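Can anyone check this?
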Amino acid sequence: MGIEKAFDDFQQIVNADKDRVDVARERRDVFKKAINAEADVAEVFGSGSLARSTQLDPVHDVDLVVVYNAGDHPDWGQPGESAAEALEYTRGRVKYLLGATHGTVDQLVRYTRWRNHAVKCWIDPPEVPDAFTVDVMPAFRQADGTLLVPQAATEEWITVDPEYLIRAVAAHQGDWEYFRPMVRVLKRWRHSAPTEIKSLVMEVLALNCMPRSGSRPEALRAFFTAAAVEVNLGVVDPAGHCGPIQQDLDIAVLRMALENASEIAARACAEAANGNSDDAQRAWQEIFGSDFPAPAKNPSSAITGPALITTRPVRDAPQG
């Protein structure tokens, strides 16, 4: 099969189903069109993995940012109750526009509840596993282009910049065509680690540690080696606003997993360089699991002519 073909086939397994991605985008666009028509809304845009094209199956959520006109909501942006007020206002507008019973634009949303930063909107019944949801985050645009968003837990507004990561991922992809696909591969790999790792942690590590050129095997080898060092510094918001991405991340366990993968990846690349592509594939299987294609089995050599004529051994076997 060969290493490149094996990576191609594995990528097809890793990538999100196109039909499900299309449905997610259609649902996102319904939200965008309905909310963007509101008089107090300046813009609506997608954020999250779908906006960055780094999503995995199952695609069961979409993130949206609603940028309101500050002049229409002069009380927002201040410490205190305005954080919850902005979330509740956004929840009410989503129900009015898209509620399943009386939505004025579409009848799409079954249930809504606001959380710390955003309103979660269930399109599927909430009790369904992997129910599809849309997270709608209210925001103000600041003079420097960043966003001011509510944080209900602390009754304040904080600065975020989700567009920074969107631009950074797009730039890396522009330099190396395999960047987004390899981010998806790494997001899948994290499930094999013996600790919980948020997908965004892997995406930011990839942004910091993945080369911008080269073959996929060599780039992954370099990534695992660099990330095993990088993770010791902590994995933080690349835009520099929100601090650690995962407060409860077990850095020691993740480092050990990255170091182990680095050693195996180095062996895989060495085997490939020596012409042992089957052993290289088996090594990549050690990292990514049984879904990574195994080497093709060599067909048994055909036996013809006199070699087929052999003396049949006599066995003392029961008859009848």
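Reply from J.R.: I decoded it. The two ends are 47 Å apart (CA to CA).
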